[in-house]
Structure formats: C-alpha cells, structure tokens
Amino acid sequence: MSVHNPKHSYSRRSGHATASLIAFGGLLALIALCWNISPMLGVVIGITALLVCTWQLTLTPNYGVSFGKDLIKITTNKGAECVPVDKVAYLRLVSVTTQQPAAFVMRDGKEITLPDLARPDGLAQIRSMAAEHGVAIRAA
C-alpha cells in the first residue's frame, strides 16, 4: 500500500537547497571571471561546484511523516518505519516544560520519536493529519 499523498504527508530536508543554489550561482560568476585567465581552473571549480550541489540536492535525506489509509510512515535519521494506524495509542506533542520530543506512542508502550525537523511549524499539520486518521493527541 502506498502512503504517499501530498495532502497527508509532511517532510523536510535537513540541508538548505536555497543556500546551495545561491552558492552554485556565485561559483558560476567566479568561473566566468576566471575563464579569461585560466579556463582549466574554471572547469575544475565548475565541476566541483556542480558535484557538491547535486549531492546536496539529491542525497540529503528527507525527514517526515506520511499518513495512508492503514499505515503511518515515519522517516527519521534511522530510516523509514511503517506502523499500522490501529497500533498507535496517541501522538504525544512536544512540551516546552519537559523538553520531550514529539512522538507516536504505540499501544505496547514503544515510542517512535519524530525528528527535530518536524517541530515547531510542521507540528500543526502533523496534528491535523493524525486527528483525521483517528489517532488520539496528547500534549506532554
């Protein structure tokens, strides 16, 4: 079963794609200035910049939560984990006083912590998606 539905998913990248593209543009300007003096230096700088930016944009992992009809897919730095919705007891939200991270708490007591990137702006979206799928929500 696929859990990818843009309406019911939230994901973030740990890298900064905008900063990477701006840096690449700056290096292209440097290449244009160096080209008249040393074309080989421009080629070396250009290839290096292209490889680093491509790596940044394609291989930087995504973190987030996707809700399907029967499954919740949680992607963290440890990998992706699919959990049946009926096994989730509740979604514990982050608490300012206890400094506990947001997590899905299973009926057996196991916790699946959401990545830090899911806080604070995405937490409202995750809360509404959880509520739509019948997962109880508790603030810590």
Can you put this structure into words, describing what you see?
This protein has 140 residues and is of the alpha+beta class. It has 3 helices and 8 strands. Strands 1-2-3-4 form a 4-stranded antiparallel sheet, with helices on one face. A 4-stranded mixed sheet has the order 7-6-5-8, covered by helices on one side. Helix 1 packs antiparallel against helix 2 (39-59). The model has no long low-confidence stretch (mean pLDDT 76).
Q: How do the SSEs run, as a string of H and E?
A: EHHEEEEEEHE
Give helix % range: 25-40%
Q: Count of helices?
A: 3
| Quaternary structure classification | single chain
Average pLDDT number: 76
Largest sheet: 4 strands, antiparallel
Structural class: alpha+beta
**Which segments are poorly predicted (pLDDT under 50) over 5 or more consecutive residues?**
none
Strand order of the largest sheet: 1-2-3-4
What is the molecular shape? elongated
How many extended strands?
8
Share of residues in strands: 25-35%
What is the distance, rounded to the nearest whole angstrom, between the alpha carbons of the first and last residues? 32 Å
Please state the CA-atom Rg, rounded to the nearest Å: 21 Å
